[in-house]
Design brief:
22 strands; 4-stranded antiparallel sheet; globular; binds calcium ion; Neuraminidase; 8-stranded mixed sheet; 253 residues; 52% strand
């Protein structure tokens, strides 16, 4: 009895080291661009003058190179109709992408979006990004898994926590200056995650963007973060949103 109670108390004890303070940031809209409102945005990144986007839904999933100014696809490759597209990221000359259920990942050549192989992984696929030479995968659980992108063997994992508590449903991912930024599914927040610890260290409330985009309903959630590292531009959008935004974070404290 006493032992059971002690265990229950231990479970509620704070971690040995106190969780880090979470920085809150405001934002400003720098400019907005058209976004195809039929795109169920699942993955987004910037490379060499263009956005790359993966979309979901069975029979409608694709990976595409987009023109920023018009939002139109300059090239695209569909996924098999029995696969639900999820996150994508760039690894060298490849795009690596995952799918929701079934554990199938894809590689495409970035120059022409032609298929360049597939791979398997355990569990669900949500978001992906490259941190250094490791591919990071979110899967709906609070864990982020780190893989060798060449072999897709798992190297390590961390648990995402906010104020010490695990946070599930980490969705689309983006790496900015070695830190992982993420959408949290069904919320209007993006968060910054320390890849070494999994701790959420920054939080941005983007609910104002959803209103500006005229997006309502549970499926039209904020999703999609892309970072233009050269010009230091941050892009965000949402599923079925008619707009994509360049934003600047401000007043982080
Ligand atoms: Ca991204």
């Amino acid at each position: 009895m006493i032992f059971t109670l002690a265990l229950a108390l231990l479970a509620d004890l704070p971690a040995a080291t106190a969780p880090p303070p979470v920085e809150r940031c405001g934002y400003q809209i720098v400019q907005s661009f058209p976004h195809d409102s039929s795109s169920f945005t699942q993955g987004l990144f910037w490379h060499d003058g263009h956005l790359y986007e993966a979309t979901g839904q069975y029979g409608r999933s694709r990976v595409a190179r987009l023109d920023l100014q018009t939002g139109k696809a300059l090239a695209e490759t569909p996924l098999p109709s029995d696969q639900f597209g999820e996150g994508i990221t760039r690894w060298g000359e490849q795009i690596i992408g995952v799918t929701w259920h079934g554990g199938v990942g894809h590689r495409w050549r970035i120059k022409d979006l032609k298929p360049a192989g597939t791979f398997r992984y355990e569990g669900e696929g949500w978001g992906v990004t490259m941190v250094g030479d490791e591919l990071v995968l979110s899967d709906g659980t609070p864990d982020l898994r780190f893989f060798d992108p060449a072999t897709m063997t798992e190297q390590r994992r961390v648990t995402v926590r906010f104020a010490g508590r695990p946070v599930a449903q980490i969705n689309e991912l983006e790496t900015i200056d070695g830190q992982i930024w993420a959408n949290v599914w069904m919320t209007d927040f993006i968060v910054r995650i320390d890849p070494a610890t999994g701790n959420i260290v920054s939080l941005v409330d983007l609910s104002g963007l959803k209103a500006d985009a005229g997006a309502s309903g549970t499926d039209k959630v904020l999703n999609g973060i892309a970072w233009d590292a050269k010009a230091k531009r941050l892009f965000v959008t949402g599923k079925y949103w008619a707009k994509l935004y360049e934003i600047a974070l401000a007043n982080c404290r």
